Protein 1
Amino acid sequence: MSDLVPLIDVSGLRSANPAARAAVAAQLGAACRGPGFFLVTGHGIPAAITTGLFDAARTLFALPEAEKQAMSIRRSPHNRGYVGLSEEQLDPTKPADRKEAFNVGLEMAADDPEILAGVPFRGVNLWPQGRPDLRAAILAHFDAAWALGRLLHRGFALDLGIPEDFFESRLDRPLATLRLLHYPAGGADAALGAGEHTDYGCVTILATDGVAGLQVKRRGGGWEDVPSLPGAFVCNIGDCLMRWTNDVYASTPHRVRAPEAERYSAAFFLDPNPNAVVAVLPGCTGPGNPPRYAPVTGAAYLRAKLDETYAHRREAG
């Protein structure tokens, strides 16, 4: 295990014993104030759900190019669908990322009131035609990771000294994205799989296939590989939670180096509800430490972040 990325068993957050919950919360708080990354066990997500997800990802990315392009993210204003190889550039100083992706948001019916009302980022998911098995496997993991994300936020709330359920009403209809990722084998001289970046949201829950590639930037400089532990998820803090905590919690730059073998991963990004107001928490300010960020809604914040990354969104105005 890495000295930089601690391993945390979060099962105690489900305990009826307040001391057990507080103990886990303290470990989470130390990780969020320090490296910004941690590995999670005791999460309660069955291995079969993760296995099914990766089976679905391999099948999806092996579809004919025409079928994948029929689900292109360019067809959706809601950050959903397929992202082709080298369509994304997370680090503007480097070449385009050598990966393809598939984004899924909260599953909603076309006649959902929020979609009909035009709420930002509320739209239908784009699915492969005639493959309900893929849809079911992907949504099973979405729901499981969403539940884990809410559990982690109960720990964050305890650590931050706010009501344990503070985030619940702000994450019950979230702008969450489950992103399946495929990195072709590239070797040491290939372009980065994903350039240096921090994540947008509150917390990221990452499942990997065990192939190395993810690296975290040390606070003092330099890069360190993030270890892979069977059955564990890699978690990291995003910019939105850093903003909410007035930089008490740290989002850490990371990247994916070009893997020597083909690599699959699945990142669940938990962003708040569209209308949730992200305002600096009162316990995160004090004399000489005023709020560093103005309040913003979840939708407005996400829109600004996505416009920085996707050229087609900027071109669309």
Protein 2
Amino acid sequence: MTTPVQERAPVDTTPEAAPPLLELRDITKSFPNRIQILGPIRLIVNEGEFVVVIGPSGSGKSTLLRTITGLTDVTSGEVLYNGRRVWSVNHKAALVFQSFALFPWLTVMENVALGLEAQGLPKPERHAKARRYIDLVGLDGYERAHPRELSGGMKQRVGLARALTIEPELLCMDEPFSALDALTASNLREQVLDIWLSKQIVTKAVILVTHSVEEAVLMGDRVLIMASKPGRILADRAINLPRPRRPKSREFEEQVDQLYSLIV
């Protein structure tokens, strides 16, 4: 009697999908007085996305960035980067502050190279790398200047160059244009977009916090709308407008009106 041959189950050779660049799993943040600032928040950010976060003051936008970069611990939930939980400062991320946060006694070169010094790179190597990003943001020739000798827009360019010099995969920006005059802010927005779209940097995604709906529509691929008490995401909207975007166009104004209608 012949024993029937059992067929072996086919091996699944389909490659597993790569995890998202950033994932927030029901994160919350409360202060010691038990006031809940954030959450719960769920969010996925994939490579190639420029995500803008808008919402009223007190909705936890800056706190959200600090939890994403690991500068602030979450009270509950998980922050995952490339599928791995973030337990401390995320060295694959960088944060550009609203207030420039430059050291006044250091030159432009020294401020920009500061993160590389912390990484232990030799001086010639960190200065060569810093010089590339100083040139990229339009500050070539100002390497030896001190912050007191720079305008507000130039100081923010130093902050941007410092963040880019450590070559982060995730670039976070906390209202980087709000302290600038209208013309300077407009020029710097265009420069940030040019750098991002030119693929001259290794950064894989950008998260920008702003109070300006117009700025969100101008720059973002996605816009997250937050509400307060506690801070949470009310809506996640894609901006499907071709670049470069025209703020005076009907399509642009329609997107702005739609986002305004969602803000509480």
Protein 3
Amino acid sequence: MKIPHPIQYQGSKRNLAATILEYFPANVQTVIEPFAGTAAISVATAYQKKANRFLINDLNKPLLDLLQLIIETPEEIANAYEKLWHEQQLDSIGHYFSVRDEFNCSGDSRLFLYLLARCAKGAVRYNNAGYMNQSPDKRRKGTLPATMRKNIQGVSALLKGKCEFSSLDYKVVLKQVVNTDLVYMDPPYQGVCGDKDSRYYAGIHHGEFIESLAELNAQGISYLVSYDGKTGNKNYGEKLPNTLNLTCVEINAGRSSQATLLGRQEITFESLYISPALAKRLLQPHVKKAREVMVTESCYA
């Protein structure tokens, strides 16, 4: 079967998951996502049977609760989505704004799934008060209920009974990590670290994040970080410092939609950083040849 994805979320790593998983070692006990988002990496990991346990964490509590509903009570959330989807038929735009208002008051994750399926470009936006303020996509009414149910059931089949859920600061989560775990981190873009940005429920502080990575290195923890990138001559954020001794791989993320609109054929590359402990594990003789493409210079050029 195809890897199921109920949540269409701008910035999700679902399209890059297969490439990222090439840098997963053997014998992983638990995969930990401190910035889980839609948990695309955990879903793909379960699909490829590369781990049996998962810690899914995100500071965005409604999103985290939605993931838990999808995984643990799939029929409940599928039924709630189907009901909301059918209720929109007479006035889909007005219905969307009504549901959004109700969600901003209650934080009910059953409402959030419908909003994610209907919002413009799958791009959640928040105002300064933390309320969702993205408009609906006026060209479409969201994923069909039957398709949504199939995707929800698929994710549940992969992850039910295997997950621990939390909505904590990433630094608290990293304190729980042990050497048999693998941590995958996809934090907010550096350009918004330390500041409120409409694309994120919360940002992080760049310097504090580097300190956390240094602590993981001192403990010999295996981790991967998706953190910056470039399109053409434009770089997105600072590279993580050489003092962390990370291996950096550039992943082809495809053609930039913004560049295409401007008539330019530019490709976006995202940086994937590999911790020293993980790089050592990947260089063991049994590691498959595909991982030999690791590049140590290009991200730092």
Protein 4
Amino acid sequence: MEQSWKQAKAAFAAIAVPPVAWLVLFFLVPLAVIWAYTFGENVGPTTIDFTGTFANYARALEPLYLDIFGKSLIIAGLTTLLCLIVGFPVALAIAFAGPKLKSWLLLAIMLPFWTNLLIRTFALIAVLREQGYVNFALEWLWNNASGFMTLIGLQPLGDYEPLTLLYNNTAVVVGLVYVHLPFMVLPLYSALDRMDRSLMEASLDLGAGHMRTIWSVVVPLAAPGIASGILITFIPALGAYLTPDLLGGTDSQMIANVIERQFKRANDWPFGAALSFLLMYLTFIAIAAQAFIQRKAERRG
């Protein structure tokens, strides 16, 4: 028995050592190097001296960068809220769909993952730009309405002025919702699909309406999926770089764009590293808060 246990430990070690070594060498070690940069300072164009200074963190807490952090938190929070509002009915519809339709709906949700994010973002630009499909459809409706008003003897509406839908905060939020919506739908669907539907039937039989049943029965039962969806959506949205870079204007940049500029353009790696780890600390706080809320809910349950 003891010999078999030793053989099992040896087999487990043989399987575990390569991925653990890969994780340490190519994830933890580079992360530790970047963390060490947060306590360094530039002493030359390509030289960093590890002095143990906290000046980079102090600079990152200046009002300019705190405003960017705050704006990033607001945009990520709004994105998460909109994904939840849109994603919950979608996940509910998928959970209650028939087997064949459910497969097709899940395929439609996962289909964006098969396309590069850059291509999807440029496709959204083609939809939102001044000569894009949204303005094209609105111009067509405008011209038809103007023609109808002329036909009945009223003053026509005049020339259509294209809407400015790109290079602002609204475009960034729309783009982030477009990108991160599947991350909200899939955890919600997973929670709703495992739900005991007899509780919903009992609620309806006792006289509660559909909306009351969803709010009082479905939402509490789906709380773990909601919490997971919020976390999985909020964290990538907070660190989003490509979407605000392509869809946002000069006043729509998020903290990840500032970090990119420090590493690539300003060549200030210590300060960029400090901003990166402040973002990581915020991520850890969000994960800890989600774990605390989930543990508290389980104790109540």
